[in-house]
Amino acid sequence: NAGVTQTPKFQVLKTGQSMTLQCAQDMNHNSMYWYRQDPGMGLRLIYYSASEGTTDKGEVPNGYNVSRLNKREFSLRLESAAPSQTSVYFCASSPPDVSKGYTFGSGTRLTVV
Amino acid sequence: SQKIEQNSEALNIQEGKTATLTCNYTNYSPAYLQWYRQDPGRGPVFLLLIRENEKEKRKERLKVTFDTTLKQSLFHITASQPADSATYLCALGGMDSSYKLIFGSGTRLLVRP
């Protein structure tokens, strides 16, 4: 089925550990995004990529890095995880036609202890 | 400062009634506004887009209005059903040349049978 695939679905990290969240889409979308969702705060943009080879910071980029590996894949890396990064992370992609909206993945629930 | 407000309290209504959810914003000038549905443990799913020059948009049982003077969008579900129970998110877009969205924190809708 066409869509956005995120891995892993769940992860527990110790403070200071690193990890990479993977995201891939098969809809040939140019734009991809990483959001985090915390209770009562809604979705906040971490980084986005308007096209292959470009990335830009969103609202809350500190502590994260991203790689747009190719048109399909956009990964999010936590170099040294902190408890404040405990959250649900969503990857999304979108076509240029805004009337189609974003397609989101099913999320990664990350806990940092 | 920029702000998007959705009612944080759950909306609890009887099956068959019309549900009306509100999205208010300040210090933004969006070119369009989108509405998403999110079920527990899942990513948001795109429902509708309305542009700044449109007053109203309909899709099946859904109706969205957009008042750029009041800086408000209303989202209506007519003849509501228990299956409509979910969290509904509004998102603003088109504030710059990118396709990134700014999301509200969502309102939970509960439809009682």
Structure write-up:
The complex is a heterodimer of chains A (113) and B (113). Chain A has 113 residues and is mainly β. Chain A has strands at 4-7, 10-13, 19-25, 31-38, 42-49, 56-57, 64-68, 74-78, 87-94, 103-104, 108-112. Chain A has no helices and eleven strands. In chain A, strands 2, 4, 5, 6, 9, 10 and 11 form a seven-stranded mixed β-sheet that branches. In chain A, strands 1-3-8-7 form a four-stranded antiparallel β-sheet, with no helix packed on it. Chain A is globular. Chain B is 0% helix and 56% strand. Chains A and B meet through β4, β5, β9 and β10 of A and β4, β5, β9 and β10 of B.
Based on the model shown, name its key terms.
heterodimer; A: about 110 residues; mainly beta; 7-stranded mixed sheet; 11 strands; B: about 110 residues; 6-stranded mixed sheet; 5-stranded antiparallel sheet; about 55% strand
Oligomer: heterodimer
The counted number of beta strands of chain A is: 11
Strand portion of chain B: over 45%
How much helix is in the residues of chain B? under 10%
**Global Rg of chain A:** 13 Å
The helical percent of chain A reads: under 10%
Amino- and carboxy-terminal Cα gap of chain A: 35 Å
N to C succession of SSEs of chain B: EEEEEEEEEEE
Strand proportion of chain A: over 45%
Beta-strand segment tally of chain B: 11
The biggest beta sheet of chain A, please?
A: 7 strands, mixed
> What is the element string of chain A, with H for helices and E for strands?
EEEEEEEEEEE
Our Rg estimate of chain B from Cα atoms comes to 14 Å
Helix count of chain B equals 0
First-residue to last-residue Cα separation of chain B: 41 Å
Global morphology of chain A: globular
What coarse outline of chain B follows from CA principal-axis ratios?
globular
Largest chain-chain contact? A-B, 28 and 26 residues
The overall pLDDT average of chain B reads: 94
Task: Estimate the mean pLDDT confidence of chain A.
Answer: 95
Low-confidence stretches of chain A: none
